[in-house]
Amino acid sequence: MASYYSGYLSCEEPHFLESCSLCRKHLGLNSDIFMYRGDKAFCSKECREEQIESDEAKERKWKKSSRSLRKNSAETKESVAGNTVRTGTLVVA
């Protein structure tokens, strides 16, 4: 059976409403679809919650590493013979 959404796409990738973004379970035409961030569809509240928790954990980790990076790259002031010298290194990933 051809996909309901296949007429809208010309590429090989399936439409985001065809399967759960987490477990890849097929989303039927008459089934509930749980959306997250506007472009991610899920088959259940549990799958959506798991994705939300994963994204929040990644965000916390990113913020923590970002703070650490800013701390390490911040300019430090050193006094050399009465003059203020600013030194610092910026690391970009």
UniProtKB/TrEMBL annotation:
Region (Disordered), start-end ranges: 63-93
Homology family: Belongs to the FLZ family.
Zinc finger residue ranges, FLZ-type: 15-59
Pfam family, one: zf-FLZ
GO terms of molecular function: zinc ion binding
Ranges in a coiled coil: none
Keyword Zinc-finger: yes
TM region(s), chain numbering: none
Keywords, comma-separated and alphabetical: Metal-binding, Zinc, Zinc-finger
Glycosyltransferase among keywords: no
FLZ-type domain residues: 15-59
Protein name as catalogued: FLZ-type domain-containing protein
